[in-house]
Amino acid sequence: MNRRNVLGAAAMALGLMAAYPAPATAQAPFAEVGQQAPITILINSSPWLAGFERTVQLYIQQTRNQVRLDVTPYGGMLEKARNAVRAGASPYDILNLDALWTIEFYEGGFLRPLAEIDPNFSLPAEVLTFQDSNYWNAQRRWRTREGGALMGYSPNGNVHVLYYRADLLRQAGLEPPRTWDDVAAICQRLHRPPAMYGFVTRGERGNPIRYDWTPFMQGAGASIVRAPQDGDYTVTINSPQAKQALDRFIALQRNCAPPNVGVLGQGDVIQLLATGRAAQGLAVIAAWSTFDDRQRSAVVGQINTVVVPAFPGRDPGVAIGNWVFAVPKNAPAERQRAAVAFSRWFLTAGAQRAYAEGGGIPVRSDTFASDLAQRPEFRWMRAYLDSQPHARQELGYAEGAQVEAVLGLRLNQALIGEMSSGRALNTAAREIEEIFQRSGRRTGRLEPLPE
Fold first, then answer.
1. Do 428 and 410 reside in the same domain of the chain?
2. Is the pTM of the predicted complex or chain greater than 0.90?
3. Which of 12-16, 373-377, 381-385 has the lowest mean pLDDT?
4. Fewer CB under 10 Å: which end of the chain, C or N?
């Protein structure tokens, strides 16, 4: 049976419970939602999808309300969402938007604030908002709770963590890495290609390399623009700190990863770790469920996590890569209400516990502080919580997708040797400044780096 359509009706879902058993739940409460219209959710195919599917099955089982998931690869999500909000009536009642895309939908007026659908709806205090990326202040053109409307909430709050083979480090007498120097030293000890690579992360052009380089950039004290939250769009991507971050990223990739680093994607990184061919890897927390799954992993129980390593003397850089569930303005009113009813249920303590038990990444802080965190299968929770004080959003402006396209190309060219790091960052700075000039921002750029 096709998983893109398995959640269409309650009877169908109940028939699937044996194949995808709903997670066990504690005594945490669930919301009463009553009978609701059927809804359809546009959702991405991702490492956390299975956990979400199982939680939706639990919702269907408890409420007998119908939910259909349109499971779509990442590359097709934005086009489907854009088409949906411009149609006469949206085929989707909840859109899952990469936080990078939300500004386009907020500014375009394509989404309905949740309190307009249900004036009694509010986020529980325990729900993480990931630097308020689910709020929109139209006057400031910025995602902020201050003066902003609640436009949605996150079903997943991805951040990077550093995955490492605890058994290999223990056998070699090595401590878990705290700095990028530690990562390089561990690589030097354990890198034995092609059987074992010392460190892996994504180098694929576009969003993959831009997102996986961002912790290096943030950790080195660099930024893309100076202060966009205050209207200052001076481009700072070609700073000495950014060059330090890019040089370290390139050195680790060239010395520790497979030869095809320029096309290494998320599936490749996860597979190398899960098959026991990587000693360390930078990946999002949502990848965790693969590594303890006996059907998909050769290293069950052997991988642990720590906060993203830091540059000496600096705090770690942790890039937020969350998604936002939002309701299209052009969805029928009864289905908008049903979407909010599902949302109220999904954000309860009981549903979030079930979500974690099913392999998802919960978004309530009390779930991480519960007894789950003491269980071996949730040993990742400590690194996730310790990451949160350092976590930052990037590209929180309307031009974010264009800026990412520039960086995704130029960083990749530096990685594969088509450009020096200095030239790649100078080129990116010039092109990003031009983007902001075209949109009328107050901008400029730094003096060029040596090339």
1. yes
2. no
3. 12-16
4. N
